[in-house]
Specification:
The chain is of the alpha/beta class and 245 residues long. Helices cover 24% and strands 27% of the residues. The chain has a single domain, classed as Alpha-Beta Complex (Spore Coat Polysaccharide Biosynthesis Protein SpsA, Chain A), CATH 3.90.550. It has 6 helices and 14 strands. α2 (63-72) links the parallel β4 (54-59) and β5. It comes from Aliirhizobium smilacinae.
Length: 245
Amino acid sequence: MTLASITQAVVLAAGLGTRLKPITDTMPKPLVPVAGKPMIDYGLDALADAGVTRTVVNVHHFADRMEAHLAAYPRLEITVSDERAGLMNSGGGLKKGLALLDPGIVYVMNADLFWIGEKSGSPTNLQRLAGYFDPEMMDMALLCVPLDHTTGHNGKKDFQLDADGRLARYVDGERPLVYAGAIVLHSALLDDAPDDAFNLNIYFDKAIEKGRLFGIVMDGEWITVGTPEALPLAEAVIKRHSGKV
């Protein structure tokens, strides 16, 4: 697979952002500015940089504002998956979004997680993930980050990686990994999924049981802004990487 061969993506952006109140009382979480840039734009830029041309983004909270922002975003053809009538959770939102794209291999990204500090002149994290994914032996390939390269994270240890690149839920080991919010999968994986709300973690666990959940470790620093207190921490990391401090 060539590094830029994945041209479609689904971005999950419909959450309520309740832990980020009171900021999210007046705006959707994906539009909260981090170092002067809406949170979702970090992910959209990463997709565009990796060669994506078509993206579906689901919306719910302040949906009109999300639609207006996405319509003005210049680098991708964006289709909105409307969840105004009811949230579909991560799995249901993904299945609904995939129906708006052509069948095939896609990126899946969370709108409120992003990274900075990739190595200049090298393939991006998403391009590396695309090149790594092998649908013959993998249900999904996940981008992961070592716990000590996260900012704003609650400390939860998600996965551990074996020598063959397979992921399992974290039990022990010196290098706990956090799910970095990016997946490569074939859309057919969700063909048998329910049409109502469900959590995508169900599919993570199914893939682990079959030995078909794989992952790579990302380059750079990973940032999540789940609470108001995490915002200045995130901006400090971004400033440090941009050479402003």
